[in-house]
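hey so i finally got around to running the thing on that chain from the lab meeting. sorry it took forever, my laptop kept dying and i had to restart like 3 times. anyway pasting the input first so we r on the same page abt which one it is
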Amino acid sequence: MTTRVALVGGTGKLGSIIRDVVAETPGFDIASVLTSSSDLSELSGADLVVDASTPAVSIDVVRTAIDQGVNVLVGTSGWSAERIALVRPLVEAAGTGAVFIPNFSLGSALGTALAALTAPFYSSIEIIETHRDTKIDSPSGTAVRTAELITQARSGQEPVDTPYVDQEARGEVVAGVPIHSLRRPGVIAQQQVLLSGPGETLSIVHDTFDSAQAYSPGIRLSLPFARDARGVTVGLENIIDLGLQRRA
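ok and heres what got predicted. didnt touch it at all, straight out
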């Protein structure tokens, strides 16, 4: 049986990659392609909604999919834990599934998992994330997710050291972790997590230099998972099974 996919934001950079992957994945077919300004009534008839729209539109896409009793796979940035909490009760009441993937790159998921694994051993942790100058939101969804997992991993410990964090130049504090966002032309994506202790610094760096090749494997894994999911799942690390406890 073929899964009919309604793709929102299908004409954008990520949406175009998702569209190609869906077309190449057995058992999945594109039923409709919407832009971020399309009427969401066009989602009707889909078996799975995939969202690659904009942060402002994404929440309406998710709510519409839930209202129609359809699972949704969200690749749009801007979904913090607080924002996901707004739709979690709706997903649970509907008995559907909502899967939020801040970054479809396998390497990004591994980098975030490594940051969470090492976080309990360091008190000074900061994130620097770099994206192209056309990226609307900052900090990136990947950096927000990384910060949230770092803080969860340090549960029961003292908060991350954030000296002089009241100064704007010290970045935005997300889940207790300072994040510094750079927007530069000619860049796709990079995330650095800097963990410092007495006499040493551990740097976890992930670079994306070809988005189509980097994101396609994660998208391919996420499609069947999202189709069959129930409840809320956050992060590619919960799909590729790194042996971590599922967190959302």
